[in-house]
Design goal:
By secondary structure, the protein is an alpha+beta fold. Helices cover 42% and strands 20% of the residues. The strands form nine sheets. It has a five-stranded mixed β-sheet with strand order 16-17-15-14-20, sandwiched between helices. Strands 4-13-12 form a three-stranded mixed β-sheet, sandwiched between helices. Helix 2 crosses helix 4. The chain starts with a strand and ends with a helix.
Length: 511
Amino acid sequence: MGTSGCRAVLFGEDFSVREKAASSYPLLVRQPQWAEQEAGRVLSVTLRTIRQCLGKAAIPPHEVLAIGLSGVLYTVLAVDGQGRPLLPVIQWCDNRAGAQADRIEKAHREANLYQRTGCRNNSMYLPAKILWIKEELPLLFEKTYKFLSLKDYVAHYLAGGPYRTDFILASASGLFNIHELKWDPEACKIAGLAEGRLPEAVPPQALLGGIRREAAKAIGLLEGTPLFAGGGDGPLSNVGAGVIAPGQLNLSIGSGGILRMILDRPRLCPAQRTWCYVLKEDLWVLGGVNNGGMVLQWFWDSFWGRGLKGGRTRADRFRLLDQWAASVPAGAEGLIFLPYLTGERSPNWRREARASFVGIGSHHHRGHFARAVMEGLGFQMRRVFEAMEEIGGRAEEIRFTGGFVRSCLWRQIMCDILGREVMLPQATETSALGAAVMAGLGLGMISDLMAARERIQVAAVLRPREETGCQYRALYSLFRDLYQDAVRGWESLQQLALQGHTTEAKQGGAR
């Protein structure tokens, strides 16, 4: 279950893909800084997609050994005692809780939450989001029985029983102690809630129970089919890509852009530029997150998507964008893009940051803009990459995953910007494969994660091009300078945008 849609993938016992299906659901932006989804809509689409996958595979239900789940990180959903959603899902890219994050920073600077939770204070994480609910919707907050992730909500529908989450999602909340593997009392206190209002945290290979009769009927499986916890989509993508040993790094671009390095112990940055989450009981993930494919999607929708023939599917869009971007040289002939549509996360965590094209000239056409978007995202990912290697050590092996690898041009641009050799796993549905691997571990089909890595094949190896890499090194230096120049204006622009929205709302009320 991702930001913009879900995929159901049927794997064989050798972890090869037997069948898959995909569906989309909308991301709702009702106000500036908000990003939501209707939980019921996501659930119904997910159930339908599982059923479609099984229908296409045409296999007897009893041949399905288990289900593993993968879900987007940083979401929060308030449910009542009957499990009914009390408000829409607040998504990872929602920034409404900026004021709460600021107050937490000022009032609890000495609490050292980052040292215990691995998460710096930011509106992306749950302390600020839950505090926003408590302050802005106090009656709803009091009615809330549990605060869940989107994946936890779907899991509870499927298997029932007590509410549970997994170590990955829990440790990506800002409320979980990554050293003791339990909810952190001080972090919960700062968020204004008791630990009992959070689900129990279990390892990703833990059995949640058997599929309930109603759920089994909805998806076309047998009642009692084992459901395993799985985890957050990003770290599970590491597992599905075969990035499971210390020193290995995964760069993945889907809706977001994320880098994750495997560690054998927690490592934290004194400047809090990166995060550190739990993968399982003996492995941790060092990472940084930022904008990704959603920026390219915005570019398509806003400038070229409506009414343009030939771009109906995601594959069509990548093909057209590749064609346009490939028609111009590296550097887009002087056009640079700062890719901060929804603010900046790693490494500098500026939620007021905004996107901009710099250097627009009359000679620039859509190919220049498409290439500038790809390159701008690449430059930002390099900034995160450099910060991670400072903390976690040199990445001995790098693998690319996510939807962006379908673009031959974009993945080569990223390789050239990093200046390092990169492997492309044969598996494309790596988050789903990671969930399947965890289910296989829970079933006892494999003894450990290394046994799964042996079955994950590498499809191709990318090598940086020297001449292009030299150009990108110079452009990257300019990108960093332009970033520093832009910082001064971002906060003022944000205030102007919010004032305009407030004025419009007041005028609308007067009418």
